């Protein structure tokens, strides 16, 4: 199947069958491709080309640049099934979610096309007669993109679609666990570039297939004014100071530790469905996965009973075949999950689920039943993001205590409350409420739409991607003062003669 989709997506066998770095399927551990890893010299050469491409592309009027993104969106619509299938084969999320990721790419293209006619600045009142002040937004330069395995295509597109309409060239270092999806996105974008015509330079978008040293080369280069990096907090801690040391800008989208406060007035049918999707979906490997359930003590037992029943019915198996939960990415992810569960047991927590599944059919695929872990307090284990389907359940007595628990973790990505009490709902989204970048009411923490800005605070890195006014991050701001009078008055009334 992999060959059929790669062929339809326009990736050549030379690109994905001939290297010495083996790409494996998380479902059965089998080889699905071989790629060639690039070293630091190849990255430097790519940056040279990206600089030249930027000079050409930044001169193309923004609405024309939007036309390229429109053509790319068309390619994605045409190949949604193929690319969604490839995402599922390579990173193991179920097909529905693979398709959902591609739909997000289509959505951001639509948004970026409109945005290409709306890269507007301000006019500002000048204190001097005969003067105009305004703010302009100009293209920035080559944009470096680093992405994680669990969303191998959508976060790239959130950045790429906006960066392109803003007049920038792209250098993408995808996760070494999912290079094939990146090659496919690049092939589709190249088709759009070809259809667009000569104004689009050949090296407008480049993919760097490499491991950490390739990422570091990109991060350290002063010719790349913006690094947008998605991945673990560990990676962000390494990348952020390196970019800052050369006065570059970064957008950081790092780990999350997302909570739901479940109040006694909540619609429990809705809440249980939301928990199932956000805690167990994508085998707990979303940055916005629900990891902490803070439930009112009066409904704790009822909720736990309903959840365990729902968890017992989750269909686990081949992500291509109508199951709800596919495999973990690899053996290391499985071991990290098991060691977190073991620590929880040692600390006296009650653990439900979490066992390996289907090992007889897939000895090299790491399927697990999602786990529910009842803990007394929010200790270091709960505060740490274990990238696997573990839901820690804790109870609260009054709403302020629940809010404090929601905020008392290092990460600040997503959060939600289920309540029908308007005071609780409004308090949660107020300045004194959730400290996260995303705070939802009666919706789980995952599954964001692209119209809003996406990202989080604290150890999540503070970056924002996707909608709202995020496009400004991909441009440089310039303040202009134009004197159309015959005098030369100075600001602040200063006399200099
Ligand atoms: P990871 O940090 O291991 O790798 C992410 C990317 O960073 C990879 O491309 C990797 O090669 C690169 N990288 C690692 N160290 C680097 C360095 N020193 N310099 C340059 N590049 C480096 O993350 P992962 O395991 O692929 O993804 C899972 C993590 O990503 C989780 O923590 C998850 O919460 C987070 N994530 C966050 C978001 C978000 O939007 N906040 C989205 C998806 C995933």
TrEMBL record:
Subunit notes for this chain? Homotetramer.
The cross-references to CDD domains, in alphabetical order and at most eight, read: ALDH_F7_AASADH
Q: Which PANTHER family match?
A: ALPHA-AMINOADIPIC SEMIALDEHYDE DEHYDROGENASE
Keywords (A to Z) from UniProt = NAD, Oxidoreductase
The EC number(s) attached to this protein equal 1.2.1.3
* Domain Aldehyde dehydrogenase, residue spans: 20-479
Q: What positions constitute the catalytic site?
A: 253
Answer whether the UniProt record assigns the keyword DNA repair to this protein. no
In Gene Ontology terms, what is one molecular function of this protein? aldehyde dehydrogenase (NAD+) activity
Which family is this protein grouped under?
Belongs to the aldehyde dehydrogenase family.
**Protein name as annotated:** aldehyde dehydrogenase (NAD(+))
């Amino acid at each position: 199947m992999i060959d059929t989709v790669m062929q339809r997506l326009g990736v050549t066998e030379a690109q994905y069958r001939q290297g010495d770095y083996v790409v494996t399927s998380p479902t059965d551990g089998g080889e699905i491709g071989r790629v060639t890893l690039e070293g630091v010299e190849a990255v430097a050469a790519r940056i040279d080309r990206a600089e030249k491409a930027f000079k050409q592309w930044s001169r193309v009027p923004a609405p024309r640049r939007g036309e390229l993104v429109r053509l790319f969106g068309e390619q994605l619509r045409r190949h949604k099934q193929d690319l969604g299938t490839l995402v599922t084969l390579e990173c193991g999320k179920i097909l529905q979610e693979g398709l959902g990721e591609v739909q997000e790419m289509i959505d951001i293209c639509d948004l970026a096309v409109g945005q290409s006619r709306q890269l507007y600045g301000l006019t500002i009142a000048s204190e001097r007669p005969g003067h105009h002040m305004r703010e302009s937004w100009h293209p920035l330069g080559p944009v470096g993109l680093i992405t994680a395995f669990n969303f191998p295509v959508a976060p790239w597109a959130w950045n790429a679609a906006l960066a392109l309409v803003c007049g920038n060239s792209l250098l993408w270092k995808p996760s070494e666990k999912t290079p094939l999806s990146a090659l496919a996105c690049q092939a589709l974008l190249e088709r759009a570039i070809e259809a667009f015509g000569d104004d689009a330079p050949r090296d407008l978008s480049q993919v760097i297939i490499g491991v950490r040293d390739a990422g570091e080369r990109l991060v350290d280069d002063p010719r790349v004014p913006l690094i947008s990096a998605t991945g673990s907090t560990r990676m962000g801690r390494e990348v952020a100071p390196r970019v800052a040391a050369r006065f570059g800008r970064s957008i950081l989208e790092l780990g999350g530790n997302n909570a739901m406060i479940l109040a006694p007035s909540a619609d429990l049918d809705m809440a249980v469905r939301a928990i199932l999707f956000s805690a167990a979906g994508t085998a707990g490997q979303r940055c916005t996965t629900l990891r902490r359930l803070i439930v009112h003590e009066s409904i704790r037992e009822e909720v736990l009973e309903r959840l365990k029943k729902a968890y017992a019915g989750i269909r686990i198996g081949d992500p291509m075949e109508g199951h709800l939960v596919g495999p973990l990415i690899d053996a290391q992810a499985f071991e990290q999950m098991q060691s977190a569960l073991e620590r929880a047991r040692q600390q006296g927590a009650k653990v439900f689920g979490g066992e390996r599944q289907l090992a007889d059919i897939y000895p090299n695929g790491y399927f697990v039943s999602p786990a529910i872990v009842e803990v007394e307090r929010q200790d270091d284990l709960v505060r740490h993001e274990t990238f696997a389907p573990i839901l820690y359940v804790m109870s609260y007595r009054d709403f302020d205590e629940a809010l404090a628990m929601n905020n008392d973790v290092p990460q600040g990505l997503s959060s939600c409350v289920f309540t029908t009490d308007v005071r609780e709902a409004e308090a949660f989204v107020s300045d004194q409420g959730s400290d996260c970048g995303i705070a939802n009411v009666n919706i789980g923490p995952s599954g964001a739409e692209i119209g809003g800005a996406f990202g989080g605070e604290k150890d999540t890195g503070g970056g924002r991607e996707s909608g709202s006014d995020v496009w400004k991050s991909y441009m440089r701001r310039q303040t202009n003062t134009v004197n159309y009078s015959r005098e030369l008055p100075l600001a602040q009334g200063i006399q200099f003669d």
